[in-house]
Sequence to fold (196 residues):
Amino acid sequence: MQKIIIFFLTISLIFPLMVFASVGVGVNLGKIKIDEPLKPGGIYNFPSIGVINTGDEPGEYELEITYHQDQPESRPPQEWFSFNPQQFHLEPGASQSVAVKLTLPVKTKPGDYFAYLEAHPIIKAGPGTTIGVAAATKTYFTVVPANLWQAMIWRVSSFFATYAPWTYVVIAIVMGAIIITIIRKFFAFQVGIRRK
Fold:
């Protein structure tokens, strides 16, 4: 019996105990469904997504667009979406709020769209090694038909609304410069001081 105990103690000293780290991710939204129809050329801010590191190891995470294999809805391309930030570091138990913006091209095909906004850890593993850990938010929206002029008007108005108040400040500066140029061209003012 004593030899068996010595054998197991020797083996445990020679071969260190293996510790397995868990990698995990979660999101705080299960679904984003936009009820109002979206217009081609529009810029839309979706609800922010909270990404949580549910594992016990720190790591790098990112968001991207994925799809269901047999979905009947159209697939919005990755380029339509922007995430701020798209990649970020999370400690165990920490979370990061990610802003989601959708920019529809002027020539967007009308119809129903679906995509997963998927959060997953960035794994730097060897070739052929993958870790299938991800969490996703289902995203549904509908794009209505519009002609080119309507889409261009929606792009301009969406741009101004999205980046306000700075867009209005720039317009005010440009308009002020135009007014000053017109006044200087058609009116001459002389200001001077005379000594008596």
The first strand starts at residue 26 and ends at 27. DSSP finds three helices and nine strands in the chain.
